[in-house]
Write a structure and sequence with these properties.
With about 80 residues, the protein is an alpha+beta fold. It has one domain. Helix content is about 20%, strand content about 40%. It contains 2 helices and 5 strands; from the N terminus they run E-E-E-E-E-H-H. Strand 1 and strand 2 form a beta hairpin. It is globular, with a radius of gyration of 14 Å. It starts with 8 loop residues before the first strand and ends with a helix.
Amino acid sequence: MAATKKAVHLAYDPEPDLLNIDLQDPETPLAYGEEVESGVIAHYGVDGSLVSLEIHDVSKRYAAQPLQRNQQLDALDQVL
């Protein structure tokens, strides 16, 4: 049986300085969200799985210059 490939989708909105990280299909029904850290909201699906992360004031949290891949993964690990 072939594994289903899932993509992570990132969307940044500069006006509210908000980064959305979709770990599942953005149309996945949400059951609830909770603030897991100041300004970081985790959204969970009806099955309890993590669907997305919402990071507020993202430009204040991370350097303005492009991050190296390992830095990006480390930053993501901190909020997961």
